């Protein structure tokens, strides 16, 4: 029997047609009592991935009591949107103002109309709830080395804390590198100039003196997380220049450590929704990433919390358009997403039915154990070199379910960057 023909037949027989957001209810039911739901995306620039994750998140919040959304974004920038949706005293006046904090390239990942709609919904949902019951929006990533150090110093100044001197000394150590992570990384890798000792001392001091156990306020939580960002961002930039898997592993481990802090802050039985790229939320052990010594959020969350406590949902498309750039830091463009290559996962889904679908996977499913190529589009994208964008994956081990949108369109960035078309 032809393996790919058999996979197409199995997909056709078991998938659920998705004609409206009401069809997402099957996923809400499948989540069951899971405390952590991981929602992926095959690109950072596809409208449907954002809108479907938003609709699914709304259902999980309303029906299952999920308490916060953690995203692949920087902690300080996400704090601006978090303060807006939680009606904090220092909140920006509008959701557009809140999204203005996303000023680091690629800004469109979070400064877009789809996230603006989510922000307005969260603010409305939180309007009549107590401070403790309000649903938050947090950044799990760690690129914001300098911004996080700024925030730590600001917090310590406002609280007249004894750690202020150490924080300022750590900040001074980074000043010669012009707030450029790569500049610092090159100096650390090739000149053996590092600020590791300063930031580690800072975090240790904060943890020992102020944050024993659980932070008591959002301000304390933010200071602790910003200090942790400083430590891990320093490690990330230091290891990035050496190549290999170390910098990737530092980053994904940090995101899961940040999640743990948030779970502890929200108390016993806390429930979290994560929004990240498929390459982060789909278990790395089910891909060729493991052969390269790489781990990821999906793997670490399952290992730390237990597979039965987590539910991972991948997202993909057959063809469409996407927002991306041709090199890091370049102007963003609306690009075509070519039809999926033959016998890739996306091609098989399309052949099973040229419509939107939901497919239940999971370890107990006897099908979908075959390793197939699964498309991953980054913020830097070259559609003409599509074949290199496919990750060999055992789908039933990588995700618990998969949402397939046959034809997608580019998301809508706010007027922060000019979009080339």
UniProtKB/TrEMBL annotation:
For molecular function, the Gene Ontology terms on record are: methyltransferase activity
The source's domain of life comes to Bacteria
Alphabetically sorted, this entry's keywords are: Methyltransferase, Transferase
Query: What is one Gene Ontology biological process annotated in the Swiss-Prot or TrEMBL record?
Result: methylation
For the keyword NADP, the answer is: no
Q: Which InterPro entries match?
A: Emycin_Estase, Hydrolase/PRTase-associated, UCP036794_erythomycin
Question: What name appears for this protein in its UniProt entry?
Answer: Protein-L-isoaspartate O-methyltransferase
């Amino acid at each position: 029997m032809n393996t790919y023909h058999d996979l197409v037949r199995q997909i056709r027989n078991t998938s659920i047609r998705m004609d409206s957001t009401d069809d997402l209810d099957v996923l809400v039911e499948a989540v069951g009592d899971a405390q952590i739901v991981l929602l992926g995306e095959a690109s950072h620039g596809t409208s449907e991935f954002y809108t479907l994750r938003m609709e699914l998140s709304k259902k999980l919040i309303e029906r299952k009591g999920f308490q916060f959304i953690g995203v692949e974004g920087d902690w300080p920038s996400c704090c601006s949107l978090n303060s807006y949706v939680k009606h904090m005293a220092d909140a920006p006046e509008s959701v557009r103002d809140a999204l203005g904090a996303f000023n680091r390239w690629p800004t469109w990942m979070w400064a877009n109309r789809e996230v603006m709609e989510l922000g307005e919904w969260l603010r409305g949902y939180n309007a009549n709830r107590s401070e403790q019951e309000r649903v938050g929006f947090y950044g799990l990533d760690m690129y914001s080395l300098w911004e996080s150090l700024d925030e730590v110093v600001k917090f310590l100044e406002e609280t007249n804390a004894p750690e202020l001197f150490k924080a300022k000394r750590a900040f001074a150590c980074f000043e010669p590198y012009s707030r450029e992570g790569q500049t610092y990384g090159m100096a650390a890798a090739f000149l053996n100039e590092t600020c590791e000792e300063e930031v580690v001392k800072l975090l240790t001091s904060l943890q020992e003196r102020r944050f024993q156990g659980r932070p008591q306020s959002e301000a304390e939580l933010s200071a602790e997380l910003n200090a942790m960002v400083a430590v891990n961002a320093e490690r990330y930039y230091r290891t990035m220049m050496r190549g290999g898997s170390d910098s990737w592993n530092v980053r994904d481990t940090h995101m899961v450590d940040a999640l743990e802090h948030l779970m502890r802050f929200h108390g016993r039985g806390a429930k979290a929704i994560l929004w990240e790229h498929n390459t982060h939320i789909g278990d790395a052990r089910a891909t060729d990433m493991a052969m390269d010594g790489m781990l990821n959020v999906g793997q670490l969350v399952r290992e730390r919390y237990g597979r039965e406590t987590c539910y991972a949902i991948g997202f993909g498309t057959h063809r469409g358009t996407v927002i991306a750039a041709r090199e890091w830091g370049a102007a963003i463009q609306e690009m075509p997403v070519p039809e999926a290559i033959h016998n890739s996962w996306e091609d098989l889904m399309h052949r099973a039915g040229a419509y939107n679908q939901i497919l239940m996977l999971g370890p107990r499913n006897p099908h979908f154990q075959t390793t197939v190529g699964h498309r991953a589009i980054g913020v830097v994208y070259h559609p003409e070199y599509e074949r290199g964008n496919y990750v060999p994956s055992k789908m039933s081990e990588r995700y618990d379910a998969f949402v397939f949108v046959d034809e997608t369109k580019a998301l809508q960035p706010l007027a922060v960057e000019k979009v080339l078309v």
